[in-house]
Amino acid sequence: MTMTARFAILPEDIIQTLSVQLEQPNEVVQFLSLPHPRTGLLSLFLPTPDAILEVQAVSPPEGRSWFLGEHVYEDGRLVMMTPIDPAFLLLPLLKAGQSDVFRTGEDLFEEITRKIVEESEGNNKTLLERSIATLAGLPCAQKALRLICDVKEFGPGTVVYRHSPEKAEQYLRSKIGRLENSKTLEVSRTIVRHLAKEGLMEDGREKLLAVGRTKAAFDLVAQYLSPEMKQTLLATYDFAELEAHLRQNMADEVPLKSATNTKKGAAGKAEGDGKKRKAAKGSHGVEQLKKVNTTGMAKLSSFFNKAEKAKS
Question: Per the UniProt entry, what is one GO biological process (predicted)?
């Protein structure tokens, strides 16, 4: 039996949260369609009270299906849902609605929605409006808003916000600092191989290794930053010594590769010269003629000599 379904990977605690949510009467899971913080393209996100998940689909190069028991599921894609910091989603929205005045959260997101929708193309404006409104009401988003905005409170229940690039920069730098000192980098084989390939894990290069870890953490965070914001944040770091080391590594590798290729070429030529070329075998007819007994037969050249003149 062929069925329509999706296979997904997501955190276990989120599965429990969604299970409880779906048990409620008339409750459905609604996805958000929001600009991706790096590309600006509309992407899918799954909101929960405590977290937001980025939804991505891994598609096989050729048609695939899932088999589960006696059922066949035609869609062979694997959906992955991974937590994303709400601050990453808020940063480009706040920049779009940039203002020098403090505003309530409601007014702030109304202005953001108006500008984002005006710049959007296609027929997704209603979905975009609803997604931004849902994001604004999430507790995790409201908490993140305080981390990247100047905040003032006027009595109970009255809070105003103003986007602060300086505060956002401090937050991103602190995030990079926590990441570089966490075990995340150590358990990532890709990052460890990359650091080793750059020669940063050798004895005596502990200082360079520390800078390399910072750069690796920066690159991870930069996956969720716009190109402009990435360059602004990059300017707050000093990777000059690391970059000089990497350039020297590349310069040292060029003559080494050249020498290796030259050595291989010379060895191949010597091997070729040392082997005698084997004579090519003649055709079947030629080989048969070699076996003919030519004793007593006139040479072929005798038929082409000039005839002797008759004696007078």
Answer: RNA catabolic process
Name the residue range of residue 196's domain. Answer: 167-259
Span 38-78, pLDDT tens digits: 999 999 999 987 889 999 988 878 878 888 888 888 878 88
Angle (CA) 228-39-197 rounded to 5° is 75
If asked whether residues 90 and 205 sit together in one domain, one would say no
- CA–CA gap between residue 181 and residue 185 (Å, rounded): 8
Give the Cα separation of 117 and 133 in Å (integer).
12
Structurally, how many domains does the chain consist of? 2
**Measured distance CA(26)–CA(254) in Å, rounded:** 65
The arithmetic mean of pLDDT across residues 140-156, rounded, is 92
149 in the same domain as 56: yes
Question: Is the CB of residue 152 less than 8 Å from the CB of residue 159?
Answer: yes
Question: 42 and 147 in one domain?
Answer: yes
Residue (of 227, 222, 135) closest to 172 by Cα position:
222
Does the predicted TM-score (pTM) go above 0.85?
no
